Amino acid sequence: MKLNTYLYFDGQCAEAFDFYKSVFGGEYAVMQTFGDGPPEMGVSDAEKSRIMHVSLPIGGDVLMGSDTVSSHGEPAKPASSFAISVAPDSKEQADRIFPLLAEGGGVSMPLADTFWGAYFGMCKDQFGVHWMVNVDAGGQ
Description:
Layout: E1 5-9, H1 13-24, E2 30-33, E3 51-58, E4 61-67, E5 84-86, H2 91-102, E6 106-113, E7 119-124, E8 130-135
């Protein structure tokens, strides 16, 4: 079994995933707009450039997302009831990606050695997505 993260945006999905790609590297496995779908999807011409599905492999996991469109329900809203936890291989890798993720968002807990033995920090990115960066004690 595998569990992957799927994010919804209100017209910012392409921008957000270009940002995530710049932070984590890699190439898109899939990037489709609503304009790539069949006409019976009922998407307005104004929304056809929105992202229907994007898939970005990161390590052995996949970060996926899409934009919402008016014909398929209410717009996406930033959520504070979850965070994406990423486990870099080293403190150096954590020190590289954490400030990139936090830029334009904010830091709620700076990266630091913790009492439970990890190098850990929490932030929110410019799109309102919450992140936890955690390097286990063995990954130093």
